[in-house]
Specification:
132 residues; mainly alpha; elongated
């Protein structure tokens, strides 16, 4: 979670806590998004809220889970390592991450091929010097 998001969630949590106290009701300590009665939101409720937000923002329909893929894709296209993305997503192995997101690593194929060129050049020069 980014520092900015962390600070915003802390601010929101404090505001909700103060609102609950001013109304004389208990506030769930670890819940920021909840029903008015203080209970947890169901998956269907979250999906419905998300869908309404997308409609209001005029964004095409997405599954909530698609945000996970967007997060991973943005990290990789911004140059973060596969190991870091694996940890963020909680994948059991880096192979899972590579299988799903490996194609998003910027320039990875070109870099691999270019490294062969430099290897070929140094190998050629080494052989040339060795053979005279």
């Amino acid at each position: 979670m980014s520092d900015q998001l962390h600070e915003e969630l802390k601010r929101l949590h404090l505001a909700k806590q103060q609102e609950a106290m001013s109304q004389g009701r208990d506030f769930p300590v670890n819940i920021i998004f909840h029903h008015q009665n203080g209970g947890h939101l169901s998956q269907n409720t979250v999906r419905n809220i998300f869908k309404r937000m997308l409609t209001k923002a005029e964004i095409r329909e997405l599954r909530f889970h698609d945000l996970r893929h967007t997060f991973a894709s943005l990290l990789l296209t911004n140059g973060e390592s596969l190991a870091y993305v694996k940890e963020q997503l909680g994948h059991s192995s880096i192979q899972v991450t590579v299988d799903i997101y490996g194609h998003l690593i910027p320039g990875s194929n070109r870099n691999a091929v270019n490294r062969l060129d430099s290897t070929k050049s140094s190998t050629y020069m080494h052989m040339k010097n060795k053979n005279g």
